[in-house]
Amino acid sequence: MRSYYRGWMLGALALGPALAAAAPKPGERLSFVACPIVRDTRSVPCWLSEYAGETYYLTIQSDVSAAVQPPMLGHRVLVEGVVSDAPRICGGVVLAPVRLSVMPERDGNCNTLLPADDRYTIDFNPRPPGPSAGRLAFAPDRAAPVSPSQRPEGPQTIELYFDFDKGVSFRHPADLVAILERARQIAATRGVVTGMRGAHRLSDGALLEESDSIGQRRAEEVARLLTGAGLEIPLSVGWKDGEREADGVDDWRSRRVTVVLEP
User: Fold this and answer.
1) Mean pLDDT (whole number) for 149-154
2) What is the percent of the chain where pLDDT is above 90?
3) CATH top-level class of 148-262
4) Full-model pTM
């Protein structure tokens, strides 16, 4: 199976002591691949990870309506975040904002569960019984109506961003609905859907590259979903590699599909 983080272990061994010596500072960007850790609490489990001798708080266990989806045991996670000056949560330095991508390869070492510790509590208001409050794909938009003076004009570009080496997920329904609405507003006559294969530079200098066909899969999936949801215009579908000069600063933007609508 293809390795998505080639050179990661060698880089970690070579740079580990130097990285561990420097404590993270608020505002510092971090990007690393590591095993997630689950810590139980009296309210809801929290997810942590360790990197360069420090523990980082990632998120709580939640459902699909959450802005940050939790990782999963049995897989490493790509963590992309900014060190916050907020108090530690569950014993971990807070990363905010943070993006998490579950790596596709199985890793049997990623199975750590920590028991509840009275020092760590999570303020958590569980949702009421019943379906999640999260939006369903292509659910009606409850936003306030847009006045004629605010309606867009001319060609429109909308970008959808993806987890590492993944396709459409629960975070994308709002983006897909926005494309449908924008097409209606400008009376679109055709569209261009372009999928991008991304690259990502980790904090230790290692380069992660997505699988060769991921740009194509993303573009075709988005086009298929839009057509199935009633977008009745010709769609030109293409794909290409993303930016190759990955520098670890918002590299997640290279993992995208760009939709251009033309009136």
Assistant:
1) 72
2) 64
3) alpha beta
4) 0.78
